[in-house]
Amino acid sequence: MPVNATLATYGDWLYNSAVGVYILATFLYLYEQAFGRAPAKAKERELVVAGGTGEQWKPGLVVPKKPERPRAERFGRMAVALTLLGVLFHVSALVLRGVATGRAPWGNMYEYGALLTLAAVATFLVLMRSFPVRRLGGFVLTPVVILMFLGGTALYAPAAPVQPALQSYWLVIHVSVISISTGMLLVPGVASLLYLVKSTNDAKPERFARFAGRLPAADTLDRLAYRSTVLAFPLFTIGIMFGAIWAEAAWGRFWGWDPKETVAFVSWVVYAAYLHARATAGWRGARAAWVNALGFLLTVFNLFFINLVTAGLHSYAGVG
Amino acid sequence: MRDALAFLRNTWRGLTAMRTALTLLFLLALGALPGALLPQRALNAAKVDEYIAEHGWWGRLLDKGQFFAVYGSFWFSAIYVLLFVSLVGCLLPRLWEYFTQMRAKPVLTPRNLSRMPHHADAHVDRDVAEVMAAARTRLRGWRLVEREEPGGARTISAERGFLRETGNLVFHFALLGLLVAFALGKMFGYEGQVIVQATGKQYCNSGVFNFDSFRPGLRVDGTRLTPFCVRVNDFHASYLHNGQAQSFQAGIDYQSGADLDTGTWRPYSLEVNHPLRTEGDRLYLLGHGYTPKFTVTFPNGATRSAEVQWRPVDPITLLSEGATKFDPPQVTDSEERRKNQLAITGLLAPSAVFDGTLMSSNFPEARKPAVAVDVFRGDLGTDSGRGQSIFSIDRSMVDNGRLKKVARENLEVGQSVTLDDGTVIRFDGVTDWVSLQVSHDPTQVYVLVFSMLIVAGLGASLAIRRRRVWVRAVPRQDGRTFIEVGGLARTDQAGYGGEFTGLSRDLLTGGQDKES
């Protein structure tokens, strides 16, 4: 099937626009984080949630005392609106890629990265509805913007059909599930790192004093990390299994310790360890958070190092 | 004796503690990593040798520590065996507890429900019996028990989310099952690769000697392979203009099972991602390359043709190398034969471009095949007892002067070169070969079943929450009833709030704003 170059070009423009909009949103989120009210009030709200009247915190439902909202909060809301706009561009970019090439738009690292970051942003937007973490948007969007920038420059691949080994409906299934679950795992990774900052500050108030004071409570961050991991981990498991089923059809064995398979297995074990650690005395809290952060590091390592440096069956980067 | 028992018990306890299991999990992750970072013998033996040669003592040390065969190494095996034992040790008591709990009744209602993490109360006009009846209706689907308390109060203890532990156990036992099935597959499975000319040549899975390479499981001795035969009729590849492959397809006929006796051939289109599945075995199309055809006319007028596969050295342009070897015809004396053996060796370009006399290939398709060959005459060393590759000549025979280069030529299809003794070598063209793999894994379907159980168990154990709710209805002097509701999530508190709010509202109002 011939590639529609015009559509592909529009897709790339939309991708770049999404990056631009995300960068703008990042600054607005960070402004809210830096200059918004110190979260004394936010803490009260969280206590209410923990206390269990079931009142769910929604970013839009806080009734302001004055009709005029403080500037920081307005910026925060603008950031959310911009993130939604970015997601719109982001989705359109992927759709246009797909239409232009006549296949699922996740056949090389540029496209894979685009889907992964989209999943990360979408997960954060969804979780923002149940957790008071809007102002953390900047910390989620920063790695997203970095990944998208790398994807759009160093890893960029023009629209083209994929090689025979990838021409299978499993490309649609396996790669999308893996990419989406990896993207979802970005959110708990960020939340766990912030948890570590916050809990260090709770133990020794002089450390990270300026920064941690404005973060949500450690408990909230811990629950955010857990809830998003619990969503993403089964999906990641399914993704690995789909990969094994595909490998059985394409390479003659369902598991062969290919470098990518190995690192996926390692990160799976690390996330399993996180779930166990969170239920084990002595490992709860900071240690579990380290494990989760390690898990995300491994998925990023798997994405870049294994695809670009080692030679394995998964070397489909389409780079160089 | 007592000390020994105590030691055993303590070891068992230590091994089955969650902290140990966690440590072992980390060790497993850490131990698996070198397999991704270092070359592995099972995947690429040549790369391992290269690595050891490059890194000197460090490479040899890693080799001693079995770091080039991580997943069969003693230390990796030790980790997973310990983890396996630890897992069994964790699971057995849990399974016991699970069955005990399944029969146990929900616990007594605590005296002070307002101390529960979730709590609500109200005074209502209905009497105790009515409240209890409404509560029972609302709590349909919960495991519940109703109790009387002194003073006429009645309570309901209800529990839900038992499936969480079910899922948990299913997940862990399925994990054990998967490991066992995986191990059995490694013991009784095998893989064999073979190159077959795509010109109607046959391959039969009747013995190990038919394979070019064979990787048996630990309990496979190479006998009793599943019998089937394959005939490769043709091969088609299509490419994008930049040389990227778009599709590979081999037209084959195969016979297996009863067809072997009747001689029936069934057609199949073998493609990447579409293996042939027959009699529990699978046949894969792994790769392809070109076979040059050379015809040699010897000085005495005899002609011989040979078609031997050459192997690609450049995966993009399929520039290939190889060696096609000839014995002189009608020579019975082995001494004489060893003086006049011929070898045509060099490069084959499917789409040749020449820079002066330097040949290279610019496309993987056989658009303009050509070869750049050296012709050697003399003793090829095929009688020497040393094995030699079909893709190259034995260089030592050249070095010791028993094999001499007699021509170097670039040949396009139809062109020929005449040697000093009048021998004419003609390049007739190229045909395709395909590389096939036969895989046998008797347990992989069980691995699949256990994987599905793993996903189901994992989903249940992470999505379902174990939670309790208690209702107490106390009759008041004025004829009204005081209802108290308390809730406790036993595993993850987050998220129970929403459900409890709805539940307590219904329980306190008697479900009046809700049908049923």
From TrEMBL, chain A:
Which GO BP terms sit in this record? cytochrome complex assembly
Q: Which residues form the Cytochrome c assembly protein domain?
A: 106-314
Write down the InterPro entries for this protein, in alphabetical order: Cyt_c_assembly, Cyt_c_biogenesis_CcsA, Cyt_c_biogenesis_CcsA/CcmC
Q: Does the keyword Transmembrane helix apply?
A: yes
Q: Which GO CC annotations does the UniProt entry carry? A: plasma membrane
Tell me the keywords, alphabetical order: Cytochrome c-type biogenesis, Membrane, Transmembrane, Transmembrane helix
The record's annotation in PANTHER family points to: CYTOCHROME B_B6 PROTEIN-RELATED (PTHR30071:SF1), HEME EXPORTER PROTEIN C (PTHR30071)
Bilayer topology term: Multi-pass membrane protein
Q: Which residues cross the membrane?
A: 13-31, 75-97, 109-127, 139-157, 169-197, 230-251, 263-281, 293-317
- Cite a single GO MF annotation: heme binding
Q: What is this protein called?
A: Cytochrome c-type biogenesis protein CcsB
**Pfam families tied to this protein:** Cytochrom_C_asm
**Cellular compartment(s):** Membrane
UniProtKB/TrEMBL annotation, chain B:
Task: Cite the Pfam families for this sequence.
Answer: ResB
Q: List the GO biological process terms.
A: cytochrome complex assembly
Q: Which cellular component appears as one GO term in the record?
A: membrane
- Write out the annotated subcellular location: Membrane
Transmembrane stretches, by residue range?
Answer: 69-92, 169-189, 445-464
Q: Does the keyword Transmembrane helix apply?
A: yes
Membrane topology listed for this record: Multi-pass membrane protein
- Domain named ResB-like is located at 18-500
Identify the keywords attached in UniProt to this record, alphabetized.
Cytochrome c-type biogenesis, Membrane, Transmembrane, Transmembrane helix
Entry protein name: Cytochrome c biogenesis protein
What species was this sequence derived from? Answer: Umezawaea tangerina
